[in-house]
Amino acid sequence: MDLPTPDPAVGTAAPRVVLYGRAGCHLCDQARAMLERVREDTGEAFAEVDIDADAQLREKYGELVPVVTVDGVQQGYWRIESDRVRTALAQR
């Protein structure tokens, strides 16, 4: 599953932060709550991707969910530190 490509006509870019997870995953719920707090503080939105909707992502991430990436770089899995996400966001 690919993220949307930015549309120059609209002027929006794909989110820098992506949460890969699956339904019924309590750690995914915790990661989502952490990313909501980061969004409130930084204004940086995030996208969610259900790995079970894509065989390649399910193969890649399997039982590692949740996985969080910033600018395509994995920041962690299972229990993701908000400080790590914030640091990655600040590097741009």
From TrEMBL:
Coiled coil: none annotated. It holds the Pfam family Glrx-like. InterPro entries: Glutaredoxin-like, Thioredoxin-like_sf. This is Glutaredoxin family protein.
